[in-house]
Amino acid sequence: MLKRHLLIIMSGLSIGALAVILVLMGNPGNYGVCIACMLRDISGALGLHRAAVVQYLRPEIIGMGLGAFVAAIATKEFRTTGGSSPILRFSLGFVGMIGMLVFLGCPVRTVLRLAGGDLNAGVGLIGLIVGIVIGTYFLIKGFSLGRTAKQPPSNGYVFPLLVIGLLLLALAAPAFIFISQEGPGSMHAPLLISLGAGLFIGIIAQRSRLCMAGGIRDLIFFKDFHLMYGFLAVFVAALIGNLLVGSFKLGFTGQPLAHTDGLWNFLGMLLAGFTAVLLGGCPLRQLVSASEGNTDSAITVLGIIAGAAFAHNFGLAASGNGVPLNGKFAVVIGLVFTFVIAFAVCKFKVGGDVKYEKGSGCQGSILS
């Protein structure tokens, strides 16, 4: 147990420290690591949306996918499974991403923003916790997207191959890949440094099963703090790092890549937390699980990418100027959709019961 706690604490400390370093090396403020934002940038680089300020093949995501894949292969934990309500997973990933882009960050960036002094992230964190509590209520009532099953090994290798394809594109930088010339997409650490940081994060996240949604879920289910130690460590390391380099700024206004609309910070992350629990993991855990051969997680990641493209193509995503009206409507519709899915699945009990184990992350804790 002590080794498990030390592993997840060291993982959190490493991610928090690397996030500060990546910002120093060129990433946007409080944006050293943000799975949602980075997948959004990749979506733009591939031309899925044309928001010119958020287009870049983020090497951190590529590194995380490859690092988790290598770690899973090395430890014989790569297993090809899936087939559990793929259309629902895609849809929940889609709407969850809209919530994160209204807030401007995933659960990891929520902690990093708070460690940088951004009090708007505190409002978002409360929304995230409320969303996770609501989702956990539905788990207790029997919500399940169904049992996973073993699939042909080739299915599990598709996602890592896609990540390798992105790596080749990032290295070759062909003309058809979009790269922002201004805005957040133009701000990035050197490719090899970003890739190396991502590789390390992918390995430690795969080994530690780091997942914030799973941590809060475990607190409710089992009164177990194990997974939460990791995110507390992320906060502590990033806070100390920001104080040391002089990038800590306490307050609501003037924060990098943030807005001060508290209601929509709250509701955006409520939607993100709600969908994360129903899906079995936050974006970081989904990315790692997809790299371990879980095709359900791969479908979820594709849903997140599609949600990013939709949000920017139809003017839903927030900016430093606030949340557009379309984004507000989209969050409300997303919440209604998620509640309907949760009630419907609980009523019809898709796939039977699901058993959870404490301290094992989200996706990895579903036993079939």
Automatic annotation (TrEMBL):
Superkingdom of the organism of origin: Bacteria
Leader peptide range in chain numbering: none
Keywords, sorted A to Z: Membrane, Transmembrane, Transmembrane helix
Entry-linked InterPro entries: Seleno_YedE, Sulf_transp_TsuA/YedE
Keyword Nucleus listed: no
Presence of keyword Transmembrane: yes
Parts of the chain that traverse the membrane: 7-25, 56-75, 87-105, 125-145, 157-179, 185-205, 226-246, 266-285, 297-317, 329-348
NCBIfam families: seleno_YedE
Record protein name field: YedE family putative selenium transporter
Originating organism: Desulforamulus aquiferis
